[in-house]
Design brief:
binds fe (ii) ion, 72% helix, 83 residues, single chain, 0% strand, mainly alpha
């Protein structure tokens, strides 16, 4: 992903987003699920922007990332059902 940003004249950076530090396991898993779903939404929105810009490679990469996060969310949802 950084190569695409750099090729288009951008300056790739990584800055993890802030999140609450919880003490209970179920709360942690619920927060993780919420963050995974947020990531799916963000990657999907950005893939649509990439499509509008004609950046097929980036669009596909973002869709793959959204699919990965969606799978993670589904796994966490399954774990939460057992808690
Ligand atoms: Fe994930």
């Amino acid at each position: 992903m950084t190569d695409v940003v750099a090729d288009r004249g951008g300056d790739p950076t990584t800055k993890p987003k802030e999140f609450d530090k919880l003490d209970d396991l179920k709360g942690m898993v619920e927060l993780d699920l919420k963050m995974e779903l947020s990531d799916v939404d963000n990657y999907t929105k950005h893939s649509k922007l990439a499509e509008q810009m004609g950046l097929t490679e980036l669009k596909v990469k973002l869709e793959e990332m959204a699919a990965d996060e969606s799978r993670h969310a589904r796994e966490l949802h399954r774990i939460l059902k057992g808690m």
